[in-house]
């Protein structure tokens, strides 16, 4: 389960294209995470990932290569005390507990870095692995919105999991 969270680097481009260009990953992501995941999209993503101070989007490095990503996205307006969590991991590394521990690390970082009281994630009802990782990391299911999302020609449930800052 050894991994490191670190900023994305231009040298991660080949790994990002290799691992992100997978329909099994794209099916659990929003359409902003395209399939096919081209080199051009990867360049844009790496530029976006490095555009925030403090850092918000991290590479998940496994065995010396960028094998996934995780980000915390503070919200604005009346949602300003919230941040959304998003993540993905290359299929060869699934089932090792990496995502659960990466979530724990980013939650700790998020509460230490940003003026927020709640971090939420919105997995699809079909993404059982993500739901389990969130639960193992201390997230609680706050809501289920039936048949709300439309992805790849089908309606999916949207789940909202959250964890709150401890006093």
Notes on the protein architecture:
This protein has 167 residues and is of the alpha+beta class. It has a domain at 4-117: Aminopeptidase, CATH 3.40.630. The chain contains 5 helices and 7 strands; from the N terminus they run E-H-H-H-E-E-E-H-E-H-E-E. The chain has helices at residues 13-20, 23-26, 39-49, 98-113, 128-136; strands spanning 4-7, 57-62, 65-74, 82-89, 118-121, 140-151, 154-164. The protein has a 7-stranded mixed beta sheet, sandwiched between helices. Helix 1 crosses helix 3 (39-49) and helix 4 packs across helix 5. The longest helix is centred in the middle third of the chain and has 16 residues, at 98-113. The model has no long low-confidence stretch (mean pLDDT 94).
Furnish the topology, listing elements before pairings.
Layout: E1 4-7, H1 13-20, H2 23-26, H3 39-49, E2 57-62, E3 65-74, E4 82-89, H4 98-113, E5 118-121, H5 128-136, E6 140-151, E7 154-164
Parallel strand pairs: 4-5
Antiparallel strand pairs: 1-2, 2-3, 3-4, 5-7, 6-7
Helix pairs in contact: 1-3, 4-5
InterPro entries: Acyl_CoA_acyltransferase, GNAT_dom
Organism: Hymenobacter lucidus
Domain N-acetyltransferase: 3-166
What's the overall average pLDDT, rounded?
94
Shape designation: globular
Element order, helices and strands? EHHHEEEHEHEE
Q: Which fold name is given in CATH as the topology of the domain at 4-117?
A: Aminopeptidase
Helix content: 25-40%
Using the CA coordinates, give the radius of gyration.
Answer: 15 Å
Largest sheet properties: 7 strands, mixed
Structural class of the secondary structure composition? alpha+beta
CATH superfamily of the domain at 4-117: Gcn5-related N-acetyltransferase (GNAT)
Number of strands: 7
- Give the spatial strand order of the biggest sheet: 1-2-3-4-5-7-6
Assign the CATH architecture of the domain at 4-117. Answer: 3-Layer(aba) Sandwich
CATH level 1 class label of the domain at 4-117: Alpha Beta
